[in-house]
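Students often ask what a holo structure prediction actually looks like on paper. The answer is less mysterious than it sounds. You provide the chain, you provide the ligand, and the output is a string of discrete structure tokens encoding the 3D arrangement of the protein together with flavin mononucleotide.
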Amino acid sequence: MANEVCFRTLSLEDPTSLSTYESIGGYSTWKSIIKGELTAINIVEELKKSCLRGRGGAGFPTGLKWSFLNKDIPGQKYVVCNSDEGEPGTCKDRDIMRYNPHQVIEGLAIAGFAMGADTGYNYLRGEYIEPFSVMEHALGEAYSAGLLGKGVMGSSITFNLYNHLGAGSYICGEETALLNSLEGGRGLPRFKPPFPANFGLYGKPTTVNNTESFASVPVILEKGAKWFLELGTDNSGGTKIFSVSGHVMKPGNFEVGLGIPFADLLSMAGGLATDRTLKAVIPGGSSMKILAGEIMMQVNMDYDSLRNAGSSLGSGAVIIMDDTTCMVSVLLRLAEFYHDESCGQCSPCREGTGWLVKILNRIIKGQGKKGDLDTLVNIANNIEGRTICAFGEAVAWPIQSFIDNFHDEFAFFVKEGHSMIIN
Ligand SMILES: Cc1cc2nc3c(=O)[nH]c(=O)nc-3n(C[C@H](O)[C@H](O)[C@H](O)COP(=O)(O)O)c2cc1C
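The corresponding structure tokens follow.
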């Protein structure tokens, strides 16, 4: 069940070339669309049945999202691929683009047809120079083969696609900040509603999906929703690429069926070093809630199981921490990141992130005060739900969950002025 969807070209020679992609059935769905064998309704219905959920973080059902954008409303529409991949720990979209660029292109072309958009953009984070050049090369091949452009293969279908490098900002992964950035403005999140489906890029109806979501679509339509659904669990169809990092012997990206026991994923990543025990895991990227190691060893890696355990699958970045980890230091590091990346529009986030860093810094220097832990949680509670975008939750959840799960360790540091972890 490994490498069956987004990484299906990985083991092939010359995995990024058009000929390799076509040799495994690539672009067959797009060609069926061009021949008029598939309708937009067929596509959206098949996606709904597949239970593909958005791989960018929130897990919103992709078929349902596509049904919001009515193909028949006249006027310009857009599809946008979110390859910003800023969530710490996440590096899967990078590898999809590096090793299977044509599947991303086909996914976007199919999406364009399904939603009546003749133009698509792939927005890559500023640092992704290599994936950008692989995508550019693949795009060139697709145009030369007549698979993209005006009146594709003599049909009435037009689809143009552009890769766009951002400037390397975490907030530009938030879909409305991404749209502002793509328009040439500052990457500041917009109020929602209106949602991008009504008012997106240049004010036109737009669908934004993650790279892994788009790359899954051609395979679902080629092999069928049932096939895809059965790779995962009832409510979490398909495979997912987990980026496993931290204290494991073989960190990397692993494409596996959703619902795999965490313990199996840990083994695939080589397990922990000898004599080490699992202390904690952030299962879905640094903005998701941390869970204790004992809990994770009982959990399956799918949307519902992780939610029931008190966290989220998020972007699928699994950050492993063994018993040598000082939770106070990790939380300070995360708080610094979010303080740095806050766009500054909303005062609870702009001011609160700085305040969190100041208190955690004081604790680390051995100058923690009684009441600091309550103040940290109080600040986090007052950021959560009080910002334009979900960056507020991304800041609050680590603070709340670290202190909740490892309260004794934090209290020890405040009282004694040093970490309880001796390395
Ligand atoms: C602060 C913040 C950062 C985000 N970063 C990313 C990102 O790097 N990549 C991504 O696909 N989605 C990111 N998202 C989620 C997007 O806003 C959006 O929900 C997603 O691209 C939709 O695609 P999906 O439905 O396929 O998951 C972020 C959201 C927030 C609030």
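The chain has 18 helices and eleven strands.
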